[in-house]
Specification:
Length: 239
Amino acid sequence: MNIKKHIPNTITCMNMACGCLAVVMAFQGNFIWSAIYILLAAVFDFFDGMVARLLNVKSGIGKELDSLSDMVSFGLAPAAIIYNLLLSITPDGSYLPYLAFLLAIFSGLRLAKFNVDDRQTCSFIGLPTPANAMFMSSLAALSDPITPIPGWFSVDVIHAIVTNPIVILCLVFLFSYLLVCELPMFSLKFKNLKWADNRIRFVLIISSVILAAIFQMVAVPLIIILFILMSIYEAFIKR
């Protein structure tokens, strides 16, 4: 039995397991742990492909399993999180929370497009589903009063923003569009470690570390917004 070929798929299954746990935590109203599990899922998602390439054990099953896992962790899970967030901040009986599942629908479209689009081997067309999931889950986590928010920000202002149904729904519509739009976005895949070839990736990573150190949980949505703006700059303004 060749154990080596099962290692990447095992890592992918860990991604899916984290997505399932994120959904469970969402329906329990524990948005902080939902966000943590989605972050862990993103880590597993990053490493499964890398390990497959290193071990030279890429397979068709692995590709399909990766998409299915991503649909759970970065499609269903963020939709469930935002659904439960909206459920807690809208009047009883409101249908607005169901609009959160647009995130799952458009994530499915995004993943299907990725699988058949040969333009996305080294970069992305549209917002990657892990970025969308981390953005949405971090907003929900910030709505929890026990989430530590650094003194750089007004806690009342942050809570007012992330518990405003209009703001959340506008972000649902915007990010659903970003998932399937034709906006080119760079990936964090390194072909080499040369600064000239990876300048934008190094800048994002360094900026992310600095933001995380200063702003803690608030840094997550800021990093995703920075990634989007840098992609727009790289795709349109720089050219």
